[in-house]
Give the backbone structure.
Amino acid sequence: MITAVGRVTREWVSSVGRGAHFVVAVLRATRDFSSWRGEFTMHARILGVESLPIGIFIALFTGIVLALLASYSVGDLVPPYFVGTLVQKTVTLELAPVLTGLALAGRVGANIAAELGTMRVTEQIDALETLTFDPMSHLVVPRVWASMLMFPIVVGTAMLVGVTSGWLASLGLLDITTPQFLKGVRIFFTEFDVRYGLVKSASFGAAVALIGCRAGLTTQGGAQGVGRSATRAVVISAVMILVLDAFWALIWLTGRTIR
Amino acid sequence: MTDHKRSSDFLVGATVLIVTAVLVATVLWVKQADLGGRKTDLVVRTRDVGGVALGNPVVVRGVRAGQVKGIALGEKGWVVLQLSIDKAVEMPSDPVVLLVASSLFGEWQVTIAEAAGVPADRELRAALAEAHTTGDTLAGAVLPDIAQLTSVAGRIAGDVAQVADRVQIAFDDRAAKELRESIRNFAQLSAELAKTVNAQSKNLDRISTDVQDGLKTVSAAADNLNRFSNRVDSATSRGELQTIVDNSQHAARELVTAATRLREISDGLGRTESRLSTAVTRADSVFSKVNSGQGSLGLLVNDAALYRNTDSLVAELRALVADVKKNPKRYINVKVF
């Protein structure tokens, strides 16, 4: 049993070390700007722009549900404008980054893992290495940076859509006027809310891309291996998003008040 | 491939720029940032800011006029607030700043008010006087919020509890007996008082009735007076009074004339009376003479024989006249030739 615990610990530390080594390799490959510059916008388009509908769709319904939930939960106990406060705070700080991140973890993480995994099992990556192309700078770095940049764009859009849909839901479904909703939005709003959500989403983007790339590059076997890599990438990405969410909350929200 | 790459570049760039611009604009709009220079800054110093936070509304005469832009610790224990106010807002004369809780949910606001209009709270006014400066910096003070009031209420409740404890200690068996006796005495006193009140209430009722009647009489008199006034007013307004006065003057003049005539008649009557008196006197004299048998009439009245002779003469005269009428030719014989 002691041996088993030791083996598990060693494997865990080893995987963390490999992950850290992978991150360091990505950072090192980032310096080779000319190698990944050409691929960046294409991946930004695939991972970010084409993910906008998902983010908008999620935020649209999240805002509506939040407005109704806020009204249902607090009822007449608090002034109606607190619906605006709740929608703004919740969407900006938590739901837009996390829900969009989880949705993109499925889409982006699986996409990257499947793509790179397929390249791995079909030995395209080996071919690149044979041709002295660095797979990190050509395959990983543009995806990671594109994901890291475009996640905040998608999340920012989701924030706007979420608050707007919450506002429209308050107007249409609840007895809340626009001035009341705006009062609630403004009363506790700080730009930190947006900054926090965007930084967090950038970290989510980086994590999802890194995990997807690593899962893809370490794919073994045939199509089954690709499937396993994609699944593993999605699961680990989702878990990592929640871990990072807690991490940022601990770092930025502990001991911090609205003042 | 190049076209695809270029379109990717454009699409990504446009998306990034549009989303960034919209996000920034929205944040600025929600924060009500001053982009057009339409705001001016005010500096306030106070000993404490209570629950005021950045972005809290600044209110002038109940209307939102800006927001709290900065909060910083100042020298000598002061806190300096920086308020961003719309330039168009007209500030009250001699302004002071009150930091108040605007709801029970932790919302605070900064109220700019006239110094004379702040609540008459001694501590508040003292705090404002302490924070007052000669420069552009406004004096500020915190109005007690619900938490402070609750704290005070809690302290009062504690004091009441202490008093209750002391009362409980002082309230032994003897005190209870005395209190019971006092209550009994008080009950007796109350009963007697009730009797007295009951007895006096009848007098009061009577007096009240009399007063009521008196008031009714006064009211009726007032009504009459009012009606009279109305009539006088009505008569005055229609000119009837003037007509009455004119008629009265005319009647008075006629009365004067009549009195004058009456006086003349009276004078005439006086004269007539004197004449009549003279006539009566004369008649009396005549009658005296007649009675005394003086003169022809006296003799006729007093001498029966004479009377009979005269009567006989009258009778013969009547017969003679009758005979003359009957046989005129016997007495009158007219011959022309």
About this structure: Chain B has a mean pLDDT of 81. Helices of chain B lie at 2-31, 122-131, 146-170, 173-238, 240-292, 295-302, 304-326, 328-331. Chain B has eight helices and seven strands.
